[in-house]
Design a protein that fits this description.
The strands form 3 sheets. A 4-stranded mixed sheet has the order 1-4-5-8. A 4-stranded antiparallel sheet has the order 2-3-7-6, with no helix packed on it. Strands 9-10 form a two-stranded antiparallel sheet. By secondary structure, it is of the alpha+beta class. Strand 2 and strand 3 form a beta hairpin.
């Protein structure tokens, strides 16, 4: 748990920090405060620079043409990449690559050629469909969407909800029950479903607090899928989903810390410039202690997030650590931004500053990628079943 940053990591951090401050932040001066995308021409220019830096497709293994960075390094870079207005949900506007849909690495060569490689080349977009109207925090039991064999084919029926990006995607990964209800997680299979498949419809359902984001509802009515649409093994889809989701919670947590770090820095810089009751805002103990609380929150959250990343890189079990990181980072970041708004006063809720956007969007982070309550259940189960080792016993 030393978390010493080596020379290579330091160089990468400085390069990403320079990119954000010289390329992304100036760009946002001319964008709507709630914008989440840039034009194709601008994205192409930004992407060309990240490729030149050797940092395009950070999460992609080197054998697939990506940067293939370890998770600790990825976590450190996630903290830097999110330090701009749209950074929480659109870090650098995808200049470092689209999400790689890591489940596709488990596919056949034909599936990789048709789906994985086009995603890595940013030629296709995908969606991930796990959550259903019946629930999302316990998908092993909540999944009601079913797929039944019909000869060599599968017939898919059911629905999904709160699915991001399905209305703009070329295909998606859909998790359906292929065993009986009692089989739980052992009866879930992952299917690749192409947009436009007969019987498959997508519609926007609600506009959330997240800027520019309209999660979708998916409907499957007698959707016929070939045997080749199964990703991985029949009945093993839940492990295919959960392993990646657990790992993704670590950079997800780090992204929360990035915007909170910037909010804290803004508050530290602003406090000495504002005068109230005959003294600078920074001279009042109430303000000083708010800044101290911010610093404590950020350092604590960074430690547990890096601890989870280090455990994952070492090949040790890290489910509990990822759950702790997700709880601590999302809740700490929300507190930091809230205090930064309070210190800025009326300016804190003005659209001119990014604080109010971060405040809205951070509220979602305590629900997305597994709610806080779900993470607490994960941790408690590991504790009670003897799967968790304390820091001193590792």
């Amino acid at each position: 748990m030393g978390f010493a940053i080596d020379d290579v990591q330091r160089t990468l951090i400085e390069n990403v920090r320079h990119f954000v401050r010289t390329e992304i932040v100036p760009l946002e001066h001319d964008l709507d405060p709630d914008e989440s995308e840039v034009s194709a021409d601008v994205l192409a220019r930004l992407t060309a620079k990240t490729k030149q830096m050797g940092l395009y497709n950070l999460d992609v293994p080197e054998e697939y043409g990506g940067a293939g960075v370890d998770l600790v390094t990825r976590t450190l870079l996630a903290m830097e990449m999110s330090q701009h207005r749209a950074g929480l949900y659109a870090p650098c506007y995808a200049a470092f690559g689209q999400p790689d849909m890591g489940q596709l690495y488990e596919g056949t060569e034909e599936q990789k050629e048709r789906y994985l490689h086009p995603v890595l080349r940013a030629e296709k977009r995908s969606f991930f469909a796990l959550t259903e109207p019946s629930g999302g925090s316990d998908p092993a039991r909540a999944i009601q969407t079913r797929a039944k064999r019909d000869g060599k084919d599968w017939i898919l029926n059911g629905s999904k909800t709160f699915i991001s990006g399905a209305d703009q995607a070329d295909f998606g990964l859909v998790f359906a029950r292929t065993g009986d209800q009692e089989s739980g997680r052992d009866g879930i299979t992952c299917f690749i479903v192409d947009a436009g498949t007969p019987g498959f419809t997508v519609r926007r359902v609600i506009h959330t607090l997240r800027s520019g984001h309209y999660p979708t509802e998916l409907s499957f009515e007698d959707v016929r899928l070939p045997a080749g649409a199964v990703l991985g093994e029949v009945g093993k889809g839940f492990s295919l989903a959960s392993e990646r989701l657990t790992k993704n919670r670590i950079p997800y947590s780090a992204g929360c810390l990035g915007v909170a770090m910037l909010a804290h820095r803004m508050a530290v810089e602003y406090a000495p410039t504002r005068s109230v009751f005959g003294a600078a805002l920074a001279d009042h103990q109430g303000i000083q202690w708010m800044l101290v609380d911010n610093e404590i929150d950020l350092r604590t959250a960074a430690c547990v997030t890096l601890d989870a990343a280090e455990r994952a890189d070492s090949g040790e079990p890290f489910r509990t650590e990822a759950a702790i990181a997700k709880i601590v980072a999302t809740e700490a970041a929300a507190r930091v931004v809230d205090r930064a708004i309070q210190i800025h006063g009326a300016y804190g809720v003005a659209k001119d500053l990014p604080l109010e956007r971060w405040y809205r969007e951070l509220r979602i982070r305590r629900i997305g990628e597994g709610s806080t309550e779900t993470q607490r259940m994960i941790i408690s189960r590991d504790l009670l079943r003897g799967r968790y080792k304390s820091l001193l016993d590792r």
